[in-house]
């Protein structure tokens, strides 16, 4: 015969002190001991699930912090390398070419404009441009 109740029966052996506490709580809330045990179990299981979720969020936050730290270190390294490249290029142009100071400054200003334009190009366009230049 199929079960008429949506609940499943679970039995447990508890200490007399715990039994008295459950009976007292049930009486104060005007409910049965069975309902009180069900409510207490639901509360505890919900609390446990919330704790696990909080632990997962904490682990995720720590992982994201490590990723951000590594990423910022990579950005700093790239900026440093770019600055070194600019310095070496300028020194090369000053030492080994017969350019005037105003010409060097003009080239430097054009290089800054070019860099600014490149930073405004969406990454997808940049990838497409690289693919097109390989075809040529």
Walk me through what this model shows.
There is one protein chain. By secondary structure, the protein is an all-alpha fold. The protein contains four helices and no strands. It has helices at residues 16-29, 33-96, 101-120, 123-135.
Unreliable spans? none
| Count, helices | 4
Structural class by sheet pairing and helices: mainly alpha
Mean pLDDT: 84
Instruction: Give me the strand/helix succession.
Output: HHHH
Q: What's the overall geometry?
A: rod-shaped
Helix content: over 70%
Radius of gyration: 35 Å
**How far is it from the N-terminal to the C-terminal residue, by CA?**
78 Å
**How is the main sheet built?**
none
Q: Tally the beta strands.
A: 0
User: DSSP strand (E) fraction?
Assistant: under 5%
What does this entry show, briefly?
The chain is mostly helical. It has 4 helices and no strands. Helix 1 packs across helix 2.
Topology, please?
Layout lengths: L15 H14 L3 H64 L4 H20 L2 H13 L1
Helix pairs in contact: 1-2
Features:
136 residues, mainly alpha, rod-shaped, 82% helix
């Amino acid at each position: 015969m199929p079960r008429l109740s949506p609940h499943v029966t679970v039995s447990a052996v508890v200490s007399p002190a715990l039994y008295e506490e459950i009976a007292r709580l049930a009486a104060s809330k005007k409910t049965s001991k069975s309902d009180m045990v069900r409510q207490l179990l639901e509360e505890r299981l919900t609390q446990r699930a919330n704790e696990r979720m909080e632990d997962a969020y904490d682990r995720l936050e720590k992982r994201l912090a490590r990723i951000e730290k590594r990423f910022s270190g990579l950005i700093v390294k790239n900026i440093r390398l770019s600055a070194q490249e600019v310095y070496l290029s300028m020194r090369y142009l000053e030492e080994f070419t017969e350019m005037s100071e105003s010409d060097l400054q003009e080239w430097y200003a054009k290089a800054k404009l070019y860099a600014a334009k490149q930073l405004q190009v969406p990454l997808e366009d940049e990838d497409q441009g690289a693919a097109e230049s390989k075809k040529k």
